[in-house]
Design brief:
Elements: H1 10-23, H2 30-44, H3 51-63, E1 78-81, H4 88-103, E2 111-114, E3 125-127, E4 137-139, E5 145-147, H5 152-160, E6 175-179, E7 183-187, E8 196-198, E9 213-215, E10 219-220, E11 224-227, E12 230-232, E13 237-238, E14 241-242, H6 243-250, H7 260-266, H8 278-297, E15 301-302, H9 304-320, H10 329-332, E16 356-358, H11 361-367
Parallel strand pairs: 1-2, 14-15
Antiparallel strand pairs: 2-13, 3-6, 4-5, 6-7, 8-9, 10-13, 11-12, 11-16
Bound molecules: arginine (ARG).
Amino acid sequence: MRPGNRVVGLGEAEEFIRRYHQELGRSDLLYPRLAEVRREIEDTGTYTQTPEELAFGARVAWRNSARCIGRLYWRSLQVRDRRHVTDAAEVAAECAAHLRTATNGGRIRPVITVFGPDDATGPDVLIWNEQLVRYAGHLRFEGGYTGDPRGYGLAELATGLGWRPPGGAFDVLPLVIETRRQGLRLFEIPGEDILEVPIAHPDFGWFEELGLRWHAVPAISNMRLRIGGISYSAAPFNGWYMGTEIGARNLCDTDRYDVLPDVGRRLGLDTSSDRTLWRDRALVEVNRAVLHSFDSAGVTIADHHTESERFLTHLAREELAGRSCPADWSWIVPPMSGALTPVFHRYYDEGRPSPDFHLDEAARLRAEGISPCPDPRLGTRTTLRRCPVWHG
Ligand code: ARG
């Protein structure tokens, strides 16, 4: 092996292999496997994880996700080992299959699909989208956006690559997939693989007229799964939604769908001053609508009270298992009614153990349609036509 080809640090690999055998109660197999891994790293610079190691690593990466309140069910993560899939069209087809498995007719299942590991020159497959399903944003002539402003950059990029968006408020973005061999490619996910829920309110008939909807499966697709020194840059994963993610953030953040002014007016609230708490009152109604709509559609969704209780159960279980549970207070506490939930009233461990999911700065930029293309003449926000994909 040439030294430049080493991908994996021996220490990280060994620590993971030890943890795997220890947690699964297979210490009898530890030393032979360690010897094997060491030899492979010495010969090739990296090692191949067994399907069992990969599945364990992915589940523990979820368990270690400090920002996730939904970790009680980390053991149930279904792992789709697709490390052999490298063709862009097949990657896209696997993403659609992921959504079908995860959607499960509305009874959402936590699933991860793992594509091939990075090598010494970096990732072989990358999904630019931050989630498998996200909505495009379109700049309006009179100012402001139609759709999700957060999906503006990627929509621009996709349009530059030949996508023709319908121009509505909920246009699902195509998958933007980059492979080393094929560069950037666009793929539309078949409509029948994307379950969406129209949002209606249990008491207010007019709510439906707002024309709001949301997709059933939140599947993060631009975080790097890191297990025992190996990086899987393409490894989309999902759980189910907690209502406030949609009702308090996606629909109500002022730099997202920003529906509160409209809802406040239609509720007949006094919107002349913040002190009337009209936003707070409208916020509750939007969140009732989200939970009600998912329930009526038979689609799994958690409310923030229940999910907070579950998280405390998770903490207790982790403590019993003798493990520290990393958690980030500012992410764990729900974005509405914080102090009504028990997760508000305590502190958390702040370690960042591995395996984990990591969001690279470059990945964050790609999700906004900005290529990490190093050529300054091309600018930063650039389409592939002007900027050949760069594998630095
Ligand atoms: N907050 C993100 C969204 O609204 C999804 C993040 C992951 N959420 C989850 N429940 N697994 O789309």
